[in-house]
Write a structure and sequence with these properties.
Blueprint (H helix, E strand, L loop, with lengths): L1 H14 L2 H21 L6 H20 L8 H25 L4 H8 L1 H9 L6 H14 L10 H27 L4 H22 L6 H26 L4 H7 L3 H13 L5 H18 L3
């Protein structure tokens, strides 16, 4: 009995730690992405991104009840940039996975946070991790005869740039806004950014009850839960460490893409995913 209580306490401690928050966030967000891809037959990728952002914002706004008047205009400008980064990141990633496998898209997107991590390091060994990441990029380059759509690759790389901006901005938002207030408001701002394009592509189909229900599932799995966990982790972790501890993202996306979406990866794609993941994990290792 004592051993069981000790194990329970250890597990509780682990999953209340910043590392535990990130592991749960990784699983949740990739489950949400797999569900989102299944909705592309009903609505455009940008439309799904809008549903994810808008519904996640609605849920978090009801929970957090932000104190709107307590923040300055400069705080709201920061919030607007944060929302823009999230809106663009989600729209670009979902557009990318319409053309290329989920695991490959997330690997290319992950180059954004990896670049943030490496930019905050000054160790000579990091040259090796840069070389490994570059090797992964080369393996995923859509040369003639490749199975990868060039447009999907470009969109995923664009999402990576937005993810890098998200990491840098989220640390500042977490220090400026109380709890998850900043996250809730920024998700709403991101939804407003992508709404015009979502309406142009999908029309009022976006607001059909069945689609709203499925969109709520995507929102909870891919935004509300993981973003809240990430914000909690960022308050206790340096930006560099946060960026590289998420090296499991590509592997998790590949696994769920295979299990849930039936996406087969070539040996070259698997090697590229491994190289980028190793580069991320290696850059996190202490000398």
């Amino acid at each position: 009995m004592q051993e069981a209580m000790t194990l329970s306490a250890a597990l509780k401690s682990r999953f209340q730690s910043p590392l535990g928050f990130l592991l749960l966030a990784i699983l949740s967000v990739q489950l949400g992405s797999a569900l989102a891809k299944g909705l592309f037959v009903y609505v455009s990728p940008v439309g799904v991104a809008f549903l994810r952002l808008a519904l996640a914002s609605a849920v978090l706004l009801m929970v957090t009840r932000p104190r709107w008047r307590e923040y300055s205009w400069s705080d709201y400008r920061l919030l607007g940039l944060f929302g823009l980064s999230m809106g663009a990141m989600n729209s670009l990633l979902y557009s990318a996975i319409a053309y290329i496998p989920l695991g490959v898209a997330v690997t290319l997107e992950f180059l954004g946070p990896l670049a943030v991590a490496l930019a905050h390091s000054r160790r000579a060994l990091d040259g090796l991790w840069v070389a490994l990441a570059a090797g992964g990029i080369l393996l995923l380059t859509p040369l003639p005869g490749s199975d990868l759509d060039p447009l999907g690759v470009v969109l995923a790389l664009g999402a990576g740039g937005c993810w890098a901006a998200y990491i840098l901005l989220s640390a500042r938002v977490g220090k400026t806004f109380q709890g998850s207030e900043g996250l809730a408001m920024a998700l709403g701002a991101g939804a407003l950014v992508v709404l015009p394009l979502a309406l142009a592509q999908s029309g009022l189909q976006l607001f059909s009850p069945p689609l709203l229900g499925l969109g709520l599932g995507v929102a909870m799995l891919a935004s509300a839960l993981p973003y809240s966990l990430e914000m909690a982790a960022l308050r206790r972790l340096p930006i560099k460490v946060f960026g590289v501890l998420m090296s499991l993202e590509p592997a998790m996306a590949s696994f769920l893409g295979l299990i849930l979406l039936g996406e087969q990866l070539s040996p070259q794609m698997i090697a590229a995913i491994a190289l980028v993941s190793i580069a991320a994990a290696g850059s996190a290792a202490k000398p």
